[in-house]
Amino acid sequence: MKFIAKAGESRYGLAMQHVDHLSDADIIRILQDTKVIALVGASPRPERPSHQVGQFMAARGVKVIGVNPGQAGRELFGQTCVARLSDITEPVDMVDIFRRADEIEHVVDEALHALKGLKYVWMQLDIVNEKAAALARAQGAEVVMDRCPAIEIPRLGL
């Protein structure tokens, strides 16, 4: 017999705590509050997850600023792509990171220094970096790990 757990449940029907310790209500609040995203690792290639998520969020009315040195000056998601987070001159609500786990700490450190008032750090699926998360939380940012907004939005009915 195959068991299919609902989101947030273990195979025994017990509530599970997600690695980032955020509830569905927290994720809903974060997604509804986010108006501007800096998408680190943005790709112009439609088959790449970073491109798909950027397009998805932009289609929902979120301003998505791509961050990729190789694409700087080009248009992605209806905005001019920048080389570094420090090149962004406007307030950003969330940094959504499409980088390897070993690069996350550097990206979070750069984001916290470059983007004053940053509210949220979002690490994509399979990315968990507790040291980077602690750094972000110490500066007042909420941290989402091992999740994708393009999955969470439909799952939560947003």
TrEMBL record:
Coiled coil: none annotated. Residues 31-127 form the CoA-binding domain. SMART domains: CoA_binding. It comes from the Bacteria. Pfam families: CoA_binding_2 (PF13380). InterPro entries: CoA-bd, NAD(P)-bd_dom_sf. PANTHER family: COA-BINDING DOMAIN-CONTAINING PROTEIN, CYTOPLASMIC PROTEIN-RELATED. This is CoA-binding domain-containing protein. It comes from Celeribacter neptunius. The lineage of its organism: Bacteria, Pseudomonadati, Pseudomonadota, Alphaproteobacteria, Rhodobacterales.
